Amino acid sequence: MARKTTNISPPNNRDSGEQDQFLTILSREEALQRFEAALFPRAITREQRGLADALGSALADDVVAPLDVPPFDRSNVDGFAVRSVDLSSATEGTPVRLALNDEAIACGTAPTKPVLSGTATTIATGGPLPRGADAIVMVEHTQPADGFAIDVRRTVSPGQFVSYAGSDIARGETLLRAGTVIGSREVGMLAACGIAEVSVAGRPRVAVISTGDELVQPGSPLRPAAIYDTNGAIVAAAIDENGGDAVFLGAVPDDDAQLEAAMRRALLESDMLVLSGGTSKGAGDLSHRIIGRLGSPGITAHGVALKPGKPLCLAVCDGKPVVILPGFPTSAMFTFHDMIVPVLRRMAGMPPRTDAKVSAKVPIRIASELGRTEFVMVSLVEGRDGLIAYPTGKGSGAITSFAQADGFLRIETLADHMPADTEAEVTLFTRHVRAPDLVIIGSHCTGLDLVTTPLARAGLIVRSIAVGSLGGLAAARRGECDLAPIHLFDDRTETYNTPFLVEGLELLPGWRRMQGIVFCRGDRRFEGVSAQEAVRAALADPSCIMVNRNQGAGTRILIDRLLGGARPEGYWNQPRSHNAVAAAVAQRRADWGMTIAPVARASDLGFIPLAEEYYDFALVTARKQRPAVQAFLDALVSDEIRTALDHAGFRRA
Ligand SMILES: Nc1nc2c(c(=O)[nH]1)N[C@H]1C(S)=C(S)[C@@H](COP(=O)(O)OP(=O)(O)OC[C@H]3O[C@@H](n4cnc5c(N)ncnc54)[C@H](O)[C@@H]3O)O[C@H]1N2
Ligand code: MOO
Predict the structure, then answer these.
(1) For residue 299, which of 327, 272, 323 has the smallest C-alpha distance?
(2) Phi and psi of 583, rounded to 5°?
(3) Which pLDDT tens digit goes with each residue over 278-311?
(4) Which of 66, 180, 503, 509 has its CA 20 to 30 A from that of 31?
(5) Is the residue at 633 inside a domain?
(6) Ligand 2 within 6 A of 328 CB?
(7) Is the shortest distance between the CB of 374 and ligand 1 below 6 Å?
(8) Residue ranges of region Disordered (predicted)?
(9) By C-alpha distance, which of 135, 162, 166, 140 is closest to 153?
(10) 13: in domain
(11) Angle at which helices 627-637 and 446-457 pack, to 10 degrees?
(12) What is the DSSP string of 269-314?
């Protein structure tokens, strides 16, 4: 949030030396209990809806069956309605002859003649059983006989091929419970009972407002220092998924008057208001202060011992819930699902959501903050002996931590970590997880997305988890993935990747990525010179700022060699990815850095090639024969993918 920086370090309240908006941290359970106590009990609203319009809504009341389904005893087959005792002596050798009654009962035809002893009546599947009959003989188990009769050569048991009145739905039975969400199956049951309209709980109208000067709506161009508003879209979608009708009111800047006006209007027109951003401690964090002016009792919890989600603010203004979700997207989504969905579902007349859980082993140690219940988003893969849960964590500020996760695990308040190899309970976001067909764990490259395109087209699920080359190798050694993409430079042998393989792994050659110096086009210090000359020019100019790479990156070794011990301005800025280097140069935070050619090209930067980096795959030999691995191997050498890689600037090894 832009304004935050203007007042971020000095305490806001200068007299007391204390910050005026210090959060009082409550436990998750207490925060939810206070919020719910201020909201419930409350009546749900009711609406009469035709079946077609009721889809997705929750029933407001139990529905009791007004009649039997089927409404009469009926035949399940095409054949003859008979009295079973008439056929008690029938055998292959001594058939029983039955005279046919002079009517045929089709579907929708009410029978008029009884089946008397020694007679049968022709009946179609679905036809009502005539008086006197108690069973049906299938047509293929009879022979026509002289004089409008049939011969039957087998006995029948009473009730054979008969569906009795009320056997499907009995009049007076509770057909559907209040709270049931109406889907196609429920519609079917209601229609079978002749019910055309139902009373459903009104979907609460929920206003959604994003806050922050930095937010731009998707579809509009991004200005410098701005980001796209992700929370608005996610929160609105999650509201609709959980029984509400979201009304997105856009992003409001960090301006007290504008925000208050927007919040007042939203509350007037809706049953609930969900904001995101500006609930923490910055000077731009206004919304929670405005809540106090909007109605009573106001804030019931501000600050929850949750991670992610600490700054969550829960309030009730004159009976309407008002929520401020943390600005970080993963925090916003997680707290919404954990703390707001239960309340929204209750207001929408829906039962609590039941979460499916699985047990999975966590292969690595996960650090956790003492004093906060920490929820860690995880991605599940099939290991040697069961499921493995990989943290997808890129932190609360990332969107993929949540979006690419299958579920989450919980680290208790009093733990400061979860040890490696813990068997943890994972709460799933969806009721079923389909284990991926191909698991790739290691360093990510946009070229990899090209290779997996044909697999996705063929319906294979590819799970790619970016943990860096070394993390990938460790996962491969533990048999948790099929392939580990790596680009590791061995200083001693001056070769890539091969020296890092251990038993059970084999090298699958990938492609080469040209590394070189990036700079803004037109920069005379770099245009048209060699890498060595470029670095000399940069070192000679004290105003020239570089962007480095992290220790351990292959690229860093190249940079250090080029610098020969020099430590120019910017040396300590050490981002962890090729993209971050390009962004620093493109945004003029640095004048030069080293990255790979496809990334430089995508940012339209000048590029001086220096050395190639090998991006290969450590293939787990024991998993080589799996169909998805074979499909990957095929894709890698196919003309289509070779051309695509070439085109993107990756050179096949
Ligand atoms: N000094 C402290 N700083 C922070 C604390 C703290 O305790 N002391 N808490 C941190 C935690 S935990 C979280 S979570 C964040 C949340 O802060 P806010 O709710 O006030 O959110 P903002 O500052 O407005 O934004 C944080 C971050 O999220 C981005 N953002 C905001 N809205 C959206 C949106 N609609 N779509 C996408 N991204 C959004 C915003 O640009 C910021 O990058 O505060 C920590 N700070
Ligand atoms: O609570 Mo914040 O959500 O940790 O990132």
Answers:
(1) 323
(2) -65, -40
(3) 877 665 578 888 998 999 999 999 999 989 999 9
(4) 180
(5) yes
(6) yes
(7) no
(8) 1-20
(9) 140
(10) no
(11) 120
(12) H-SEEEEES--SSSTT--HHHHHTTT-SEEEEEE-BSEES-TT-EE
520 shares its domain with 581:
yes
Atom of ligand 2 nearest to the CA of 397: 5
Give tens-digit pLDDT for 461-483. Answer: 998 888 788 889 999 998 889 99
Domain that holds residue 185: 48-64+174-201
With residues binned 3-state (H G I as helix, E B as strand, rest as coil), the percentages for the chain, rounded to 5, are 25, 30, 45
Verify whether ligand 2 is closer than 6 Å to residue 375 (CB atom).
no
Collect contacts of 543-546 with beta carbons under 8 A, ≥24 apart: 544/568, 544/569, 544/591, 544/592, 545/569, 545/570, 545/589, 545/590, 545/591, 546/570, 546/571, 546/573, 546/590, 546/591, 546/592, 546/593
Bridge partners of residue 151, in order along the sequence: 97, 143
So what's the ipTM on this one?
0.97
Look at residue 66 and tell me whether its pLDDT is greater than 50.
Answer: yes
In a domain, 650, yes or no: yes
Tell me the ligand closest to 4's alpha carbon.
1
Spatial CA neighbour of 390 closest among 356, 361, 423:
361
**Does the structure show a pLDDT above 70 at 372?**
yes
Q: Which residues contact 508 (CB under 8 A, 6 or more apart)?
A: 483, 616, 617, 618, 619, 633, 636
Report which protein residue has its CA nearest ligand 2's atom 4. Answer: 308
Instruction: Write down the residue that tokens 């910017």 correspond to.
Output: 570
Q: What's the structural domain count of the chain?
A: 5
The residue type at 427: T
Whether this prediction's pTM lies above 0.95 is answered by: no
Query: Do 155 and 230 lie in a common domain?
Result: no
Is the pLDDT at 148 greater than 80, yes or no? yes
Q: What CATH number is given to the structural domain containing 514?
A: 3.40.190.290
Residue 170, both tokens: 């009995």
- pLDDT for 2 equals 36
C-alpha 287 to ligand 1 mean position (Å) = 13
CA of residue 332 to ligand 2 center, whole Å: 9
Q: Which helix (H) or strand (E) covers residue 484, if one does?
A: strand 483-486
The CB of 254 under 6 Å from ligand 1? The reply is no
Q: Are residues 313 and 326 in the same domain?
A: yes
Helix, strand or coil, per DSSP, at residue 651: strand
Domain match, 537 and 598 both: yes
Q: Tell whether the model's pLDDT for residue 576 goes beyond 90.
A: no
Q: Evaluate: CB of 310 within 6 angstroms of ligand 2.
A: yes
Residue whose structure tokens are 């009410």? 110
Q: Cβ(128) to ligand 1 under 6 A?
A: no
Residue with tokens 């000399």: 536
511 bridge partner residues: 615, 652
Dihedral (CA of 608, 548, 440, 489) sign = positive
